[in-house]
Amino acid sequence: MDSEYKFDLAFRELVKNDNREVPEAVRNRVNEILSALPMRQPVLKKVCYFSAAVVLVFCCVLGLGLISPVVAQALKQIPVISYVFEKAGDSGLQATAMEGLATPINQTVSDNGIKITITEGVFDGARISIGYVQESYFGPMEIERPNIWVNGKKVNFGSGYAGKMLSPTKVAGIIYLDPPEDLPDSFTMEMVIDAVGIIPGKWDFKFPVSLGKSGLVTEPGITKSYKDIEITVKKVVLTPSTTNLKMQIKRPPKYYEDFRLYDDRELMLQNFGGYGTSDSNNGFETMQVSTSFAPVWGKPKYLVLRPVIHKWGEDQKQPPSPDVVTELTGKLPVTINQGRVGSLTVTKVEYLPDKTLVHYEVEGSDPYNQSWLLWLRDGQGRDYNINTPGTANPKRESEDRYAFVREFPACEKGEKLKAVTKQFDGPAFLKELEIRIPLKW
Amino acid sequence: MSQENEVRMAQKGSKDAFMRLIKNSELSMYRVAKSFLKSDPDCADAIQEAILKAYRTIASLREPGYFKTWLIRILINECKQILKFKNRVIPIEDLIVQSQQRDVFEQAEVLEVVDSLEDELRTIVILYYFEDLPLQEVARVLELPEGTVKSRLSRARAKLAELLGNQEERGNCYGQ
Q1: Phi/psi of residue B26, each to 5°?
Q2: Cβ–Cβ of B15/A39 closer than 8 Å?
Q3: What is the mean pLDDT of residues B13-33?
Q4: Which of A26, A81, A264, B44 is most exposed, with the fewest beta carbons within 10 Å of its own?
């Protein structure tokens, strides 16, 4: 064994000197597949059981399949029809559902043991959002990117997804579609899903789509550049459920970017994700990107886009940050330092029979990422984080400050709960690339 | 941000976080793929398929700390699929060419020596020494009992010591 130990020491020294690199052809294939990956909305894995009365109504609706327009209109009056938008949608879709802007679709197709029901939809000019419920004894699986036909012609859409487990065999979700520029205001959409997880099949839906209540459209055409990076905001569409930006980005492939968007009160609009295509030429990538943010409040005079530019490999050089653990059993509010990015203040903890609600506010340069980095630890050292059934995403509670509430599994009132978070630096903005977008209402 | 946080962000839907994880694992993926598949195009195919599968299923990864092991396991499955499809056997001529080349070079690169190992030993060496996975993780990735991995590692050490010892002798001859 001693000789094996010595061999290991010597061989590991040799291995350290191995300077093999990934061949350019292989690296290009990796970059190619990464660029082609569709953008994703957050996937919510928590288990959430809704009350018996709601279950009854919802199941009756699902059982109807294709329904007459009269029934559809009547069903529109029932709040539960927008259940999927309210429960699984982002804050923009939740607002859409509350305002009754979603249109019921209610089509069900079963194949290979998986039943998919398209429940409702909305098209606001910037994106098409389609609510669905998936039921399967295989357990919830991800829906493959659908094939879409518009008035009988196949069309490419960017797409993203979000999902919420309703039970071990049922998940409610939203399919987000980023429409191409030349889509008519009204059309018939056929959507075919050909796989759910590893199960192939055919789930074919056809329904009419009409442009709903939309908002402001502006084409600022503003370009900012810094060194070898150039960003152009081509179009901005403001709707009740989303703020959508269409941009062109030109830069070398050694960089990648993400965006923060602020209104005229310097309040950040949550980023819902986006979709992009890219073209490589002469060592530069030209990307056409469509990114959606939360809807604006009121009628801001302008928006400010702040890109964050990263260099591949730089982030990995940072050492891992340890947990910051703070007792919650003492007097509240309690403020927790999250490092250079800012701080988080827990204002209230509610011990309810079926859940624990933690109310908190964040201050800092990256409020939404800060708000995600909060979970609970109980007296036995068990963590309740996003992977724990019963833990929800943070929900914003106030329009004019970053106040959130987060749902965790039920705990005993006497439980010695601790808040856990991390410290991080927050985004480094390049002032030269900041773009102010004026809005004329 | 730590890798675990990146994994959590990717699980929450951040494509950017997923891309960073993959770029950080690019060299590891290439080394592991190369230990199974000889040609770079085949390695690229396996890596692409593994990336797609990982993107689709990352939400199902229970322990973010095991991301690398999980990714390598997906990749190895893809490599095996490609081998199965191609019914690949390394032609004996390739092995002869490799040993002739070692006669020409003054000092063999470690990876060439490792490449000359039989398949089942080569992959274990890559995972244990190059990817620095602990024995239990190597066993988990390859879906083998830990005892089997230990005994193959012992055989690999003996073989490597012999081959590297021979290389040193040849190097000394050229040095004269």
Answers
A1: -60, -50
A2: yes
A3: 89
A4: A264
Which pairs with CB-CB distance under 8 Å and at least 24 residues apart come from A149-157? A149/A189, A149/A190, A149/A191, A149/A192, A150/A183, A150/A184, A150/A187, A150/A188, A150/A189, A151/A184, A151/A187, A151/A188, A152/A188, A152/A190, A155/A180, A155/A183, A156/A180, A157/A128
Select from A34, A171, A174, A289 the residue whose CB has the most chain B CBs within 10 Å, as the one to mutate to test that interface.
A34
Chain B: residue whose CA lies nearest to A44: B12
pLDDT given for residue A66 in this prediction: 30
> In the block, which residue shows the tokens 């959430």?
A48
Q: Whole-model pTM?
A: 0.54
* Res B126: pLDDT: 92
Average pLDDT over residues B75-104: 57
Q: Is the pLDDT assigned to residue A36 strictly greater than 80?
A: no
Q: Where are the alpha helices (DSSP H) in B58-145?
A: 67-86, 92-104, 110-115, 119-125, 135-142
Tokens at B176, concatenated? 């004269």
With H, G, I as helix, E, B as strand and everything else as coil, classify residue A255: strand
A432 shares contact with chain B (CB less than 8 Å): no
Stretch 236-295 of chain A: residues touching chain B, C-beta under 8 Å: 256, 258, 273
A chain contacts of residue B129, beta-carbon cutoff 8 Å: 8, 11-12, 15
pLDDT (0 to 100) of residue A200:
83
Cα angle, residue B83 at apex, residues B80 and B84 outer, rounded to 5°: 85
Task: Enter the tokens of residue A66.
Answer: 């294709």
Smallest Cβ–Cβ distance between A386 and the set B1, B8, B16 belongs to B8
Nearest-CA distance from B5 to chain A in Å? Answer: 9
ipTM of the assembly? 0.77
Show residues of chain B in contact with A4, CB under 8 Å. Answer: 154, 157
Contact between A149 and A155 under an 8 Å Cβ cutoff? The reply is yes
Instruction: Please name each of the domains of chain A with its CATH number.
Output: 3-210 (2.60.40.1630), 233-317+428-438 (2.60.40), 324-421 (2.60.40)
Determine contact, residues A193/A143, Cβ cutoff 8 Å: yes
Instruction: Identify the CA nearest to B73 among candidates B119, B128, B127.
Output: B127
Q: Does residue A305 contact residue A435 with C-beta atoms inside 8 Å?
A: yes
Q: What is the pLDDT of residue B168?
A: 52
- Residues A419, A376: contact at Cβ < 8 Å? yes
B19 burial class (0-12, 13-18, 19+ CB within 10 angstroms)? Answer: buried
d(CA B36, CA B130): 15
* CA nearest to A91, candidates A239, A294, A261: A294
Q: What is the dihedral of CA A83, A89, A90, A94, to 10 degrees?
A: -20
Tell me which DSSP letter residue A277 carries: E
Quote the CA–CA distance of B173 and B176 in Å, as a whole number: 6
Residue B173 has pLDDT above 50, yes or no: no
Nearest to A292 by CA among A253, A249, A251, A236: A236
Distance from CA of B106 to the nearest CA of A (A): 16
Chain A residues with CB inside 8 Å of B167's CB? Answer: none
Q: Tens digits of per-residue pLDDT, A40-70?
A: 544 333 222 222 222 222 222 333 333 333 3
Phi, psi angles (nearest 5°) of residue A147: -90, 135
3-class secondary-structure state, position B14: coil
Tokens 């009409």 locate to: A210
